[in-house]
Specification:
Two copies of one chain form a homodimer. The first copy, chain A, is globular. The first copy, chain A, has two domains: 119 residues, Farnesyl Diphosphate Synthase (Orthogonal Bundle), CATH 1.10.600.10; 193 residues, Farnesyl Diphosphate Synthase, CATH 1.10.600.10. Chain A starts with 9 loop residues before the first helix and ends in a 5-residue tail after the last helix. In chain A, strand 1 and strand 2 form a beta hairpin. Helix content of chain A is 74%, strand content 1%. With 325 residues, the first copy, chain A, is mainly alpha-helical. Chain A has 14 helices and two strands. The interface between A and B is large, with 41 and 41 residues. Chains A, B: This is Trans-hexaprenyltranstransferase. Chains A, B: Pfam families: polyprenyl_synt. Chains A, B: It comes from Loigolactobacillus backii. Chains A, B: Keywords: Magnesium, Metal-binding, Transferase.
């Protein structure tokens, strides 16, 4: 796995390195063809950002029960993996992390069931990590929020009036909830003070929101090979992200005629849209919002007890959200 | 809902009638369009066989905690509903229970996420009904088995050598596991003796297997309007059920040439296959196997303590599996 981002955080990197074989075992599926794809997805990557954040926050608690924490970290990554497999079926994405997606090799049917099965494996790890029913309920609650975010997108599609607030609400569910869960569970399972657990949830949320916004910005600014998801398809389907929404506020008359083409949108139209969004300051405004969220996270991090973990968390947040100083 | 099958079991019918509004509330989804379809599926039907079996077995225990049992019964039906929604996406079925399927109205994307969300709502009810971590683990274990059964089908597709044993293993996961879970959880959550819980699981398994076999028989014998799932598509995809497997054993040379056409199979080919299966005794042999499983269930039921619940269970089993005396 691509764990270089953790090079400067040796305690976390050690834990993530140990997590990898555990995760591969926890995600094992009986059927060889399906298993081969899921294992390949695990092996090909992932910086394990969510598990890393989980471990960073676990360092704020006194109880370092290795087994329980490992199950907690694995749970987060399995939930993430389950949602990715279903997302890829939905987007009919051919590749993820540079390897063929599950459905491409074993069909939509088995990819849907494989995602379902991973939700089960996720719950197995939740059960291993939890000490109380409430620990489990926090997980179903987060999973509910994640799926709510995905379903909210449906109401928004093709709404040219989609506002920035609605976008934020949607990425809150789609991305931020899982980051918040990772951070809060790390603190909670290590028995950190309740006030730290709550703060961890807030910090995870801010980092998740900024992370998603920057990811959406990349769709407009990245080199072709950096673009991980075909945005043409998204825009055709009426899914508009923050840079486009800001550009739409600034230059509605220029952008609307293109967006209204919906499913008829061509690759050339898309290039025009990309150029308009970049020129109209949509990208810059989205970046500003990501920076504000990053600042908020850094502010909340500063309020945590002064420990090496806090320093590490601050450095990682800056790097992850491209605010290197 | 179509609760007439419970007319002669008034205590169960009363509980199922009370379960209906609870279930509708437990399955509520925030997004109106998605919610409308899920609620319609719930309102249009289902005999609530699994919840009914759950309640029948709960009568073998001393602890009739209404709230806990209701959550347990709802959990079973929500798990069933979640799998149905994903099944319908996979089969691209236009209707279920005489109403439009979820994906037909809100698209595959939202139907997949809606199924995922129902798995979450299922777990919420599991948490409400469970008293110990083990009660929860029994559920994840059953869910694992169900999905394993679905994925096992993949390995079997297009295998002309699929054996009866493999078919049984597959419907064990696909159908019998949920029946077994329903029966065992009913007994368990009412604090019945462990030996009754284990027996409940066995009985549920036998009933589930017989139920699925009879369902598969109907594909070959039912009037057109009774056929709930297009079997042409199944056979094209290499999914062979018991009547066809028995017929294939008896007359391989006649059936193989048709089956080998796979995706090229026409409606006319299918009629020929249906005629061959019916004539070749495949249907009769499948019915015999269902009857043997029913007898096994009835035998195990006879070993339960002699109570009105036992009598009701026996009568219901005979009716459900068309063994009216």
């Amino acid at each position: 796995m691509a764990l270089q981002i953790w090079d400067d955080f040796p305690t976390i990197q050690t834990k993530l390195t140990a997590l990898t074989p555990y995760l591969i075992e926890a995600a094992r599926i009986k059927q060889p063809a399906v298993n081969e794809r899921v294992q390949s997805l695990l092996r090909h990557g992932g910086k394990l950002i969510r598990a890393g954040l989980f471990y960073l926050f676990s360092e704020f608690g006194p109880d370092q029960n290795e087994e329980r924490l490992q199950a907690g970290a694995a749970a987060i990554e399995l939930l993430h993996l389950a949602t990715l497999i279903h997302d890829d079926v939905i987007d009919q994405a051919p590749e993820r992390r540079g390897t063929q997606t599950v459905h491409t090799r074993v069909g939509n049917r088995n990819a849907i069931y494989a995602g379902d099965l991973l939700f089960t494996l996720y719950f197995d790890q939740v059960l291993k990590s939890a000490e109380t029913f409430n620990d489990i309920a926090v997980n179903t609650h987060a999973m509910h929020g994640i799926l709510d975010g995905e379903l909210d997108q449906y109401d928004l599609n093709y709404h040219l009036k989609e506002t920035v607030d609605q976008y934020l609400k949607e990425i809150e569910g789609k991305t931020a909830k899982l980051f918040a869960l990772a951070c809060a569970q790390g603190a909670k399972l290590a028995h950190a003070d309740m006030i730290i657990v709550e703060s961890a949830e807030q910090i995870g949320r801010s980092i998740g929101l900024a992370f998603q916004i920057l990811d959406d910005v990349l769709d407009y600014t990245g080199e072709q090979q950096d673009i991980r998801k075909p945005i043409l398809q998204d825009i055709q389907q009426g899914i508009y992200t923050l840079p486009l929404l800001f550009a739409l506020e600034a230059q509605p008359e220029k952008l609307r005629p293109y967006l209204k083409r919906g499913i008829q949108l061509t690759e050339t139209d898309l290039q025009t849209i990309q150029a308009l969004v970049t020129k109209s300051d949509g990208v810059a405004q989205a970046r500003t919002m990501a920076n504000e969220l990053t600042d908020q996270a850094l502010l909340d991090i500063k309020m945590l007890p002064e420990t090496p973990a806090r320093q590490a968390l601050e450095t990682l947040t800056r790097r992850l959200l491209q605010r290197e100083q």
